[in-house]
Each structure stands twice: as C-alpha cells, then as structure tokens.
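S.,

Sequence below, as promised.
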Amino acid sequence: MKIQKLEFGDRAKYWYLKSLEFSPNINLLVGISGAGKTKIISSILALKKIVSGDSFNGVYWDITFLTKDNVSYRWQGEFATVEESKIKVNDSEEEDKFKIISEYLSKDEQVIIERDSEKIIFKGEKVPKLSPFESIVELLNQEKDISPVKEEFNKIILSNLDTNFAGIWMIPISQLTSILAKYKDSSLSQIQESSLSSIIKLFLVYQYLPETFNTIKEKFIEIFDTVEDLKIQSLFVEKFPESLTDFKEAKALLFKEKGVSNWIVPPNISSGILKTFMYISELYLSPEGSVILIDEFENSLGVNCINSVTDLILENLRLQFIVTSHHPYIIHNIGNKYWKIITRQGNTVRVKEPQELGISQSRHQGFIDLINVLEELSE
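The prediction came back faster than expected:
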C-alpha cells in the first residue's frame, strides 16, 4: 500500500484535516507541539478500524492509495454525527454504533460502490439491505474488486514498542506450537504477509529461516557492538505471577553482551536497545507495501540508535513510512524533500510543503529555515 492523498474529519470532536499528499516512501511530519502530527497518525489507524467494521461518530474521510500491484483506489465515506447527549448506550449489538450516510469506492477511476443512507449500488446494481453501521469494504470483503482494499489496510502497522516482557518478548509454548506447525514450510514472503505480530514472525524465521534472522541480528550488532549474540530459547520460570501462568513455559528472546557469561532476558535490557531491535525486525519482516507509522520516532532511542535506524529507513524503498519527530538530527538527516510541515488554525490542520513556506532546498539552510518557521508558528 502507498497512501497518496488523505482528507479526514471528525465533526463530533470538531477536528478537520485538509487534504494532504504523501510521498511514496518517507514522510516526516514536523511541526510545533499540538499542531496535529499525532492526530494524522490516529486518523490513518481509524481508517484501518473502519475497514474492519468499526464505526466512529461524525467521522468522514477521503483517501487515495495504490495497491502492491499499482492499482489505484479512492475510498470516501461519512458517518452520521450524533450529539453526545443523544447517544444511547445499551447492551445490544448496535451499542455505540453510528450509521454510514455515504460511501464511495473506485478502482482505477471506475466506480465500484456508491452508497447513501437509503441504498447501496455495487457495480451498477442495487444490493440487498446490509448493516448500516459497517463499511461496505468489510461487508463485501470477499468480492474480487474489494478484497484488495482490506488486504492493503491490514498492512498499516503502528510501530509501538510495548515493554511488557511477558506479552511481547516471551511467547507461551502452548501458543507457539500450533503457529510453528502451520508455518513450517513457509517462505519469507508468506511469513511477512501473515497477520502475525513482528515478534512471532521473528520466532518463525529463527526456527525456519536462519539466514533472515542472522541478517537482522547482524544489522542490530552493527549498531550495538556491545552485544555479542542473540537467540530464542525455551525457558521454564518457576516463580511467576498468577496472572501470567501461561508464560511459565515459553520461548524467549535472549541477548548476550560481550564479556558477560550469562544470557540476558528482557526487560533487563534497556528500552532503547529493545526498540531499535524491533524497528530493525519490522524493516525485514513487514510485507512489501506496508505503511509503517511511527509517532515520536526518537523516544527511548540513544544518539547512536537514532543515526543508524534513520539511515536504515532512508535505505528502505519497499515500505512507506509516516513518521513524526521533534529531534533535530532526524529532521536534518531525513532531508527537506521528505518534510510535511503541520500547521493548525483553530480546529483545522493543514500540511504544507517546504517550498510553500520559502524553505531552502539546501539541506543545511533548509533546516535553519524550518527552525525559524516553527518559531514563527509557535508565536
């Protein structure tokens, strides 16, 4: 998936994002605090949820994107806006559901779906009444021209390190056994295309595709030369909280540092090391055409990590990155041709290209110009 254009609004919360265009590979969202950078990330994640059947009060959208086969889709829609005081909360299946009042989907400029509050027209024909609370992309996701839409939205990945040791870096053997059996003869692309989490994919390539695991490990050790080795091993933990009983017998990711005889288990590793390792794993284990969302990229990363992981992202052309950051090195190193400068006036967010604000194309001068622009915006 390559997101090309996006417009999004939330009438219930009075927040509006004017249409913006994305670059096919790297998009660095920069702006003062509170301008709306994180809200743009949240908007994209909301669309992923809508594709899977969720509904949102007063939300509307208009997104254009390319599939991995370079097929162009445009998807628009709008939910009804209900005043908060009139929202009925009950125990029915329609609790907190909001009706779709319009929806439109086209493929290579050919209309597939036209929908309003009364009817749904699919390829020119009216279809039987369907749930008014769910997107047609979810309701008709088995149709040949619609299934790629859901497949592409499933490739939107929020890169968000959860430092919960048991939940992320250990997998109960009881849970992993069936997954290992299912993917025993799978290729790297089949593992990448699966809906599994990055850490489970990592466990799979360790088991079945050691060359891929070693590539990830070598890239990581280039950044952290104090780390000597990585492995995945079965552990048995006698004293474990009752709520985590399933993890008594589990597979875990272990680190070995130079000059230290014992292997180290997270969370006895710094969050910066873990976050860097997860970023590198995602670069290799996400399916081609994934959209990687990273909010506040610099969080928990040391200077050496920021430099190295930024360089890895710049080298990667098979994924699309939408990243927010305040860090001077990241902003300067990624370069102004990838900047999307976020401005906000009241409840309306707009995205401007550097040239619109008179920012120099020179990397060094452009960075100085950006600092001056952001100071003016903050005032």
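The CA atoms of residues 373 and 379 lie 10 Å apart.

Coffee later?
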